[in-house]
Amino acid sequence: MKSNTWILILALLFTTSLSASELISEVSDCTKSEISLDPIREIISELDPKLKDISIVAGQAAWTEGDKFEGDIIIFSMNAQLGQTQAERNEDGSETQYFIGRLSSETQMGVEGLQHQYLKVSAITREEVKALENDGRLHIIEKGVSIGNFQYTRDLPLGVENYIEVEPIKVYGTIGWKPFENSDLQLLGRASASLGYAIGESSKPGVDNTSNMYVGTSWGVGLSHRRFGSVFLDRFVDGEVQKYDFNSTSSREAEVSFTYSYDFNERNNISFMADKRSFRFGPDYEKSKRYLITFTRRFK
To answer: What per-residue confidence (pLDDT) applies to 17?
Structure first.
């Protein structure tokens, strides 16, 4: 499905719980008054670097780059940030926070050594979160905007020597629905959209490097239960808006995943995931499949 179709779907979902005038008001407020410099000054004056969580992942992988990469893999990942404001309570019951210097990293190793490195940094993020109401309607339970995003990837199984994305802005949101009052079951949907510039260098001889504008889109649907955990199907694409042309000289990164996640408590989580990743340097195409078990330890 075309990327701009998913953007339309997201817009339709959001307007389910907000009238057109309310949606325009939300966007106007977000771009005018809510993105102010005062919270940023507050964070900078009292920077408090924190490690948010760490994860250890074990699994298996197979891909088209060559048999030497196939087999067992281990992944280490982490999320951290430089600072955040205190949550501010809004009139509608939601809470707003600003974050600075959000950082995510991932390192994948196999029998041949280091295979995959990933680093993403978001300069400033504004996030608004609200508890899901029990009135039988769809509701926005999370919305946010990240400004000044940078991503670096090195992925030898996919033939990527160096890949950089510079993303001025990204918007994202989550909607939810409960079937009845006091239900432990929730139906969730999440989506994001971004705009940026990508530079890619292939690790394969004879494959041209790329540099191009891209539109990033993602969507996910899932079920969450308070006692039994959650399942999610997610997909993202960073590439051209229109259907990809195999004769194009642009790069295109994509992933689809299915995940079951369970919280033992507020600090510890385990998840099982199957994903398929792909990367194109123009007509050159590589793909990877992974089956992963992840243990995550969260910190306050």
So the answer is: 42
